[in-house]
Amino acid sequence: MSESAAIRVHRRFVMARRVKVLASAAAKLIPINVRNILDVGAGTGELASALQHLRKELVFSGVDVLVREKTLIPIESYDGLHLPFSDKSIDAVMLIDVLHHCEEPLLVLQECIRVARKGVLIKDHVSESRWQHCVLAFMDWIGNRAHKVALPNNYWSNQQWQNAMLLSGAKIVKKIDILPLYPVALAWLFGGRLHNFWWIETKDMESNRD
């Protein structure tokens, strides 16, 4: 299969389903007291738009290092590390399959925690073996190569995720670790527990739950 054909197949059979599943999961994880959300690494804003249809009270804006010509939410350019917002100035930040694309994922996570008042929504991968790393790298290549997205393949193990939370002063408050992102024929290889969704908070954020 050529690269362009693989991209078309991925878009038709994977991306539409992915957006629907992730929006549904996110709608369950985001607390009811959240209103404004910053989507970091927003892409086209497709997921934010789908989520807004499920949670109409939510208002989204986004930042990305590569701002695309057509987006579904307002998206501004940023340097990929420093968010141009003051401390605790936004209800929530969401990072959907973003951190493993970052050269400094821990610093990006901590920057998102800095600006979030109530919590941070994270969807990312967990890799516990060389095989899982290769599977995830292939998935990212298919899904992102055409958009010139950086692919450093910084996939963390469960222990690395725990260490990142500890270093950031955060904890996982809610999680979904089984996401039906793929049809049955593909789920055996690309699904399982490679994908995790978390709502995280710090002690400061806990005091802002009301």
Automatic annotation (TrEMBL):
Residue ranges occupied by any Methyltransferase type domain in the UniProt entry: 38-119
GO MF annotation list: S-adenosylmethionine-dependent methyltransferase activity
Keywords (A to Z) from UniProt: Methyltransferase, Transferase
Transmembrane segment boundaries: none
Any one biological process term the GO annotation gives: methylation
CDD domains: AdoMet_MTases
Tree of life domain: Bacteria
Protein name per UniProt: Methyltransferase family protein
Species: Paraperlucidibaca baekdonensis
